[in-house]
Amino acid sequence: MMNDPFFMQRCIDLAQKGLGYTYPNPLVGCVIVHNGKIIAEGWHKKAGQNHAEREAILKVGDTALLKDSTLYVNLEPCDHHGKTPPCTDLIVEMNIPKVVVGCLDENKKVHGKGIAKLQSAGCEVKIGVLEIACQKLNRRFFHFHQKKRPYIILKWAESADGFIAPKKSDEQYWLTHPLSKQRVHQWRSQEQAVMIGVQTALNDDPKLNTRLWAGNDPIPVVIDPKGRLSQTKEKRNLDLKNILTVPKINFKKHRGEWLTPNEVSDQLYQSGIQSVIIEGGTKTLQHFIDAGLWDEARIFVSPKTLGGGLKGPVIRNHEKRPTHFIKEDRLITLYQD
Prior knowledge:
The protein is of the alpha/beta class. Helix content is 28%, strand content 23%. A hairpin with a 2-residue loop joins strand 14 (322-326) and strand 15. It is elongated and about 70 Å long. The protein starts with a helix and ends with a strand.
């Protein structure tokens, strides 16, 4: 008897390997099982490269086995031409008799169409194995297509007495342990964009890259209603030619001093940004908190105390529970209800 959850979990584990590399495509893993044993597996490694199903099928040495095999995949196989041909066509061509799918694809180009094509070709299709886990895996992709906005992660570090920076200082001050800083760079590698407010860009001159972690650099985004960043003459770590600025993104009519979180989110959506990690400063983070426009908050709490300085953002009505410790830093993760 097939252990469907076991094989679907393997699909999820494989798909996770593509996090940060597949945008704008979803995370997909695939295994092919013959007589209860995996004979091939694959995952989508990068946009433009083979999808997981094709990757796995092409690894099967004896293709005659496919007519007696089951293909497992965490997301509905595609049935449209993009940079690669439809996976459904190859599944049908190889006479794979059964396909087990974790969840449907929310992209309107795919939703239900891949399943329908397989079934019309005589393929047995089972849907919904580890469905919640499969949906969670692609929460960034689904948010983008369902809610028409990016998946939004808030991140900051604060002292034990609630400050994110000391009183004015000429030197940068790090609250957290170097391993916590490295974790942030890992997170950046997983998201499509990283965003800050213009004051943070001017004050801290950040690089916003993944220099402490092997992975893709996210797209830097700066909320800059008045175009202050472009008016600076000194050389900066952020290359102005390679960042997105708001309202530069088709937002010429805005006359206010601050863009609302919804306006910023709309501009990111129009630019195809599926996920963004917001790293500051306090004003930017608090605006998104007050608007209820966030999905995760990742907060480092250092044992250090500052006794004054710049107060950190505040999320009310959420019980703070430590996820775990990184050396002496306490990492708290909150999820929007």
